[in-house]
Amino acid sequence: MAKRSDGYQCQACGARYPKWQGKCDACDAWNSLTEETAPEAVPKGLNQGKGRTIAFTTLDASVEEAPRIPSGVGEFDRVLGGGLVAGSAVLLGGDPGIGKSTILLQALARLAAAGQSCAYISGEEATAQIVGRARRLGLENAPLKLATATSLRDILATLEEGEPPRAVVIDSIQTIYADNLDSAPGTVSQVRTCSHELVRFAKRRGVTLFLVGHVTKDGQIAGPRVVEHMVDTVLYFEGERGHQFRILRAVKNRFGAADEIGVFEMTDRGLAEVSNPSALFLGNRENPVSGAAVFSGIEGSRPLLVEIQALVASSPLATPRRAVVGWDSARLAMLLAVLDTRCGLALGGMDVYLNVAGGLRVQEPGADLAVVAALLSSMSDQPTPARTFFFGEVGLSGEIRPVGQAESRCREAAKLGFDEAVVPAGLKLKPVGLKLRELRRLDELVQLFRVDESDARAAFGRR
């Protein structure tokens, strides 16, 4: 007799349905429902038994700060909050080939070379492949334990023998399966169960656990969202495969700052740390060109200078193009509407291209002023003032609003040789050796470039 199915489960969000349907109503994913048996119910009568008393404590209780173990990769430790924490679980996601396995192999190899016991368990690659990568990276002499396994039962039995390692990598969680479940590896029930058992082992034995996760086409870690709630830290590797720079970003961290970033450069010897990312993202500023403005932003706790590039061109199309790389396209549409309505600059018939140099993705609204400056610079065909940077948020009424950590932004720019800042009015900044140009409304920035609609049309006519 065929085994009875208890329903269908969405592989994107975990929602269950009694019968198959093409679209998940919970997360709007298409063709994500697979047939799975429901987990066993809680035994009846459990609420009648006598449980163990829970011990409470107070907020003024003395607790010790979690000790940090440096991995030897400075940027990696920075994103983690200062190093590895015993008993913590870290989930690392990113596009295929972005460098997830490489950064973890480098970190654990250096940790093992420092005398710590570390294990690297792969479910995707053979041991010979990992050894070959280690030789290319110059890490073949590190006493790192390697294994290839996909069975959760075998992995836990091996790690429980003797003294557990200080750090363990599972690459990847989608390849691990629990033999007490009928579903295939990578399904919602398998990923949830395997993650729960591995995290529980790490908490019980004081092991730092690294889980590598696949991502969907939208860039989110595949599998149920509950896995991200189980772990202590969620890291994303950002960047383009054809670009040599990589950004490691913490989107969740119980032991450090969220949105902290680490910058790496992909070389033939693996991922190399970038000690001064501001200089990296600025590029060559010796010969200024129109359409570029420097933005001083904050990524986590780190001030970072990045170049915003814009190109405004006449469009032969009925619907002009809006191409954005590294920023929010909806935010750009809002700024174009503000320039049109509040400043009288008709950009509706122009193609607009916007790019954040270096492959970084900027998410804070403080970049509004730099984006507008780059657009105005491209329209007027005149460069922004030399050694000048911008930051500030633009409101729908055309006002320029202040942003946080202004002093840190200014100090980072002054350290790199900038001497003038275009900022929102009323920040009350302490002198940092900079000339401040305070603006209250967007019209004042337009006057700085002396842009009007007739000048813009004449400039496009010359092109």
Automatic annotation (TrEMBL):
A GO biological process held by the record: recombinational repair
Region (Lon-protease-like) location: 351-463
Short sequence motif RadA KNRFG motif: positions: 252-256
Alphabetical UniProt keywords: ATP-binding, DNA damage, DNA repair, DNA-binding, Hydrolase, Metal-binding, Nucleotide-binding, Stress response, Zinc, Zinc-finger
Source domain of life: Bacteria
Family designation: Belongs to the RecA family. RadA subfamily.
Name recorded for this polypeptide: DNA repair protein RadA
Species of origin: Oceanibacterium hippocampi
Lineage: Bacteria, Pseudomonadati, Pseudomonadota, Alphaproteobacteria, Sneathiellales
